[in-house]
Amino acid sequence: MNTAVQSLPHADLTWTPGLVQEFWQHYAKNRQEDYFTNQFGARIIEVTRKYYEPSATVCDYGCGAGFLLSHILKSHRASGCDFTPQNIEATRNRVGKMPNLMELFSVFDAAQTNRQFDVIYVVETIEHVLENDLDSFFQTLSKFLKPNGVVIATTPNEEDMQASTVYCPCCKHSFHRWQHLRQFDAEKVTAFMSKGGFTAQKVFTTDFAAKTYKAQLKAALRPMLGRKNPHLVYIGRKIG
């Protein structure tokens, strides 16, 4: 008897705005504890806050459930925006009474928002933006950021996309388990952000999980030893 397993027909999933919305609505309702900023929000601020002034106004673009924003608001006046209504509501529940909160709004209402910020955080977002949405993504960032303002983006460093690819036996499609669409290293993220009119001030790798001095020292030494840190940080400014 032939017991060989036959290869099932499958294709890579084509992400649409509707699928992306449904995917993140699921996580907003059921899996907020998995959000990157829930795990590393405090450390992200600790690593990046030296790149802007204490008086700066801040926007958390793609604020998720408000985990990072809750840390920003301890020291800065700030707003949050997101693509998912459930995330905005979760953020309101988390930070709505914090005195430094300016406003919460949907990315899709950007045209009605005239406010500009000194700093915009784009944490674990650029790897998710659909190709057809890149122009509007960069236009919105530019609209929100003051001239010479600072944009801080984080993304996985040299991610092995295949290692995080999963297969759905129901729809017979393969897709990245976190809806990642592109992979970055220092050179790629610099080129990517330059398309939006931003110029890099500093690009570096780190390990946001490194909380002790010893662990942070190891993270600082890894690139010198030819080893890879898991997280990539881009600090840029708006051109013009």
Q: What does this entry show, briefly?
A:
The chain is α/β, with parallel strands linked by helices and 240 residues long.
Overview of this protein structure:
The chain has 240 residues and is of the alpha/beta class. The protein has one domain (31-238): 3-Layer(aba) Sandwich (Rossmann fold). It contains seven helices and ten strands. It has helices spanning 17-30, 36-48, 67-72, 85-95, 134-144, 186-194, 213-221, and strands at residues 11-12, 58-61, 78-82, 101-106, 117-123, 145-156, 165-168, 173-176, 198-206, 231-238. The radius of gyration is 19 Å and the shape is globular. The protein starts with 10 loop residues before the first strand and ends with a strand. 35% of the residues are buried.
Descriptive key words:
single chain; 240 residues; alpha/beta; Rossmann fold; 7-stranded mixed sheet; 3-stranded mixed sheet
